[in-house]
Amino acid sequence: MSTEKALNTVRTRIPDASAKVGLILGSGLSALADSVAGAAIDYSDLPGFPRAGVSGHAPQLTIGQLEGVEVAVLGGREHYYEHGRADAMRVPLEVLQALGVETLVLTNACGSFRPDIPPGDLMLISDHINYAGLSPLIGEVTDQRFVNMTEAYDAALRADLKNAADAEDIPLTEGVYSWWPGPMFETPAEIRALKALGADAVGMSTVPEVILARFLGLKCAAISVVTNMAAGLGNEHISHEHTKASAPIGAAKLERILLRALRKGL
Ligand code: HPA
């Protein structure tokens, strides 16, 4: 099984590998991995880890210390839209769990529906809408597949991240993230529909990973970097180039929040 093979590779390369906190870094947000004092393994050496990759993602698993906390950082993710498999991140998440990870912090880029959460700002995900209607657990046979998603985004972790943001004087508004399968962006009518359903933002990742992480018993928190107002709500031309170019603006704030939260014992 890929998870055991990948884990063997990790343990061979980094014999004492272990981690308490896992991080998934989204488009244009991977610089944080460089701050980890530890060792990195290319995804291409790890069976079951993302292959092709999306430009803007750094494909490495980095394990080491960040602000005194043992972390395992996934410097890039695989998306449903790359091949139509919603469980693309199962092996990487199982490896993190096997290394001892109990807390997972996910990051992503999103399009905002809210004028009070404009491009360059961050949104703390309070809940999600699986608009794609897909599950990474199709085919899973154990009863654990009936995952309780009531408190998918851990209240205590959210409070820790909010406190860290306040201390850094960075606005961090909570909102509901909706999962769009992609790879095409949404039409303005689709954004109106998502908004009417109760979403505050849209993106093409994170939701299947949170489902998998909850299945594996990990506590989750997620922060979105707003790269644009969603289709029909702003003046920018929405494109992947724009996402990659805009993400670093929010990423700098995101890093300050995450580093402080880690220092405070996230
Ligand atoms: N839609 C979907 N995904 C996104 C967007 C968007 O507007 N911006 C960044 N990721």
Strand order of the largest sheet: 5-8-7-6-9
Q: Roughly how much helix do the residues carry, as a percent range?
A: 25-40%
| CATH C-level class | Alpha Beta
- Compute the number of helices: 6
Counted beta strands:
9
Low-pLDDT sequence parts: none
Give a list of the ligands: hypoxanthine
- First-to-last CA distance: 32 Å
CATH superfamily: Nucleoside phosphorylase domain
Q: Encode the helix/strand succession as letters.
A: HEEEEHEEHEHEHEH
Q: What is the CATH architecture descriptor?
A: 3-Layer(aba) Sandwich
When the domains are counted, the total is: 1
The Rg value, from CA coordinates, equals 17 Å
CATH topology: Rossmann fold
Mean pLDDT: 94
Given helix and strand content, the structural type is alpha/beta
Strand residues, percent:
15-25%
Report what the structure shows.
There is one protein chain. The chain has 266 residues and is an alpha/beta fold. The chain has a single domain (2-263), classed as Nucleoside phosphorylase domain (Rossmann fold), CATH 3.40.50.1580. The protein contains six helices and nine strands, in the order αββββαββαβαβαβα. It has a five-stranded mixed beta barrel with strand order 5-8-7-6-9, surrounded by four helices. Helix 4 (188-197) links the parallel strand 7 (172-179) and strand 8. Helix 1 (2-13) crosses helix 2 (90-98) and helix 3 crosses helix 6. The longest helix has 24 residues, at 240-263. The model has no long low-confidence stretch (mean pLDDT 94). The structure holds hypoxanthine. Residues 109-111, 180, 185-186, 202-204, 227-228, 230, 238, 243 line the site of hypoxanthine.
